[in-house]
Amino acid sequence: MCGIVGYVGPRQAAPILMEGLRRMEYRGYDSAGIAILDDGELVIRKAAGKLGILAQELVGAEPQGTTGIGHTRWATHGAPTTPNAHPHTDRSGRIALIHNGIIENATAIRKTLLARGHEFISETDTEVLAHLVGAFYEGNLEEAVASALRDVDGAYGICVISADEPDVLVVARNGSPIILGIGDGENLVASDQSALVEHTRSVVYLDNGEMAILTPDGYRVRTLTSRHVDKPINQIEWDLATIERGGFEHFMLKEIFEQPESLENTMRGHLLEESGNVRVYGLKMDDEQAKAVKRIIITACGTSWHSALIGKYMIEELARIPTEVEYASEFRYRNPIVDKDTLVIAISQSGETADTLAALLEAKRRGASTLGLVNVVGSTIAREVDGGLYLRCGPEIGVASTKAFTSQVAALAMVTLRFARLKDMSLLEGQEYVRAMMKLPSQIQEILERADELESLAESFKDSTNALYLGRGVNFPAALEGALKLKEISYIHAEGYPAAEMKHGPIALIDENMPVVVVAPRDAVHGKIVSNIQEVRARGGRVIAIVNAGDEEISQLAEATFIVPETLDLLTPILTVIPLQLFSYYVAVARGCNVDQPRNLAKSVTVE
Ligand code: M6R
């Protein structure tokens, strides 16, 4: 979603801001803009559409100046037009502001300001906030921002500059991430680490209710009510190379191919082969506390919700703890039954998804203990949970989640083992699980080496308009994930179903044009899914099946098969999802789609 970047220091700001915005493109946006302090004047350039359009406008006309702010906007209120793009200015035109989030009482503030003679040129809540800051300005930007924010309800991450205070950036956070990048003789700010890492790896994460004032030589953090706050400096653990494409045509493909390594990183240091157990200090739960958990609720959105469903199968089967999976957006507005014996697990790649965060906070308010399975270090969800596990799969830039999914499932398998070994799971069974998990990275590698088979398959299915994905048991969520991948990047309508459910409706759609992707490893329900494939074939459907080696029965029925290595039943989705990811990728490329930045989608959905 929206991206914020700011710079104050000795270098020209515009190229730094444009590069920072480019690094955040993956988050999704539909307009962009920058504001630079140029010799005591504010110069603003903005454009609807992709960053390239703004970059084109800057050729030969780049504003000069060493303090500036830049923004990519993902439209929520007001169309993605140039007037609605950020930065917005106050009434004097000397203060510029960029904003992520939503100001909930903007309409009321706008009305008051209109009555005082203010005029607005955009439909945005951000312009209202810029005017409010200007209305409080009496020669001190920091105080004007603090006063304005005390009148504001809603979520924000903001960055503000004033033509009258040339070497100052003022930022504030309430619900939308703001990270300070601490440099040598220069300082930066961004809503995403990827915009900072080229310049510095020393960062400070602002918390809600905090503001920071940055100059070239230093920074200060305070609350809206002027209380000084000491903040630790953290180090970003990855470098620029990690967020470059590294020779791959798209980030999504790079991230699919990173999975042997990313999965290894998720599991590193946690698996205990000898004791058939896991050691995850981050869970912050001793044996007594773990035994006291009577019920688990897993909450998440999108792909993370699919991994949650797999978690339910694992936990109930092995740890025998009743587990429910809830869309975070539904959980937050229900009246869920949650008490102190309930463990709520929030799963999120970004750690910033608004609905997942709200569900987590609601669960905490109701007395649940909480765990987070999160990828982005220092993200809001990671900091709100009682304990948890970082996925450590590295930055995921492609909007379609891939490596985070396999890492989430592996993390859930580890959480499951932690509980299962306290219950009925024997040492031998525990060891079998740990060994099977250790083999997964090399098994994924085996699949990736045959990616070209999926590329040719994609060619013959690229003109489909609909597709059905079927799976049973733990591979039903894998089917859901396959369908989501296909629809979000190739725009082919796809639905995932438990295979047997097909005959209760979707079977009506099947004809000789309908591709049906069936996830059918040789597991406990294999015989059942063979019957479902027969039902599809009887109606002329084109079956692509994901199978284990030597599955003659399905090979004879399917138009195409792709073989995945064998593993324990509950771990199969970690392998079966890889060909589904690759198939979607190649179909999208064959259809000429923008794989890394699909239309209308944002990487991290920070609005509800
Ligand atoms: O960052 P999160 O894991 O919380 O994001 C949740 C969903 O927005 C995300 O998985 C989304 O569905 C992806 N586009 C799926 O590829």
Textual characterization of the structure:
With 608 residues, this protein is an alpha/beta fold. It folds into three domains: 3-236, Glutamine Phosphoribosylpyrophosphate, subunit 1, domain 1; 240-449, Rossmann fold, CATH 3.40.50.10490; 451-601, 3-Layer(aba) Sandwich (Rossmann fold), CATH 3.40.50.10490. The chain is 36% helix and 24% strand. The protein has 19 helices and 26 strands. The strands form five sheets. It has an eight-stranded antiparallel β-sheet with strand order 3-2-4-1-10-9-11-14, covered by helices on one side. Strands 5-6-7-8-12-13 form a six-stranded antiparallel β-sheet. Helix 9 runs parallel beside helix 13. The longest helix has 22 residues, at 427-448. It is globular and about 75 Å long. The chain starts with a strand and ends in an 18-residue tail after the last helix. Residues 301-304, 348-350, 353, 356, 399-401, 484, 488, 601, 604-605 line the site of 5-amino-5-deoxy-1-O-phosphono-D-mannitol.
Find the CATH topology of the largest domain.
Glutamine Phosphoribosylpyrophosphate, subunit 1, domain 1
Rg from Cα: 25 Å
- Any idea what the CATH superfamily of the largest domain is called? Aminohydrolase, N-terminal nucleophile (Ntn) domain
The global form is globular
Q: Output the number of helix runs.
A: 19
Extended strand count: 26
Q: Which class do the helix and strand fractions yield?
A: alpha/beta
Low-confidence stretches: none
Q: For the residues shown, what is the average pLDDT?
A: 95
In the CATH classification, which architecture of the largest domain applies?
4-Layer Sandwich
Biggest beta sheet attributes: 8 strands, antiparallel
Could you say which small molecules are bound to this protein? 5-amino-5-deoxy-1-O-phosphono-D-mannitol
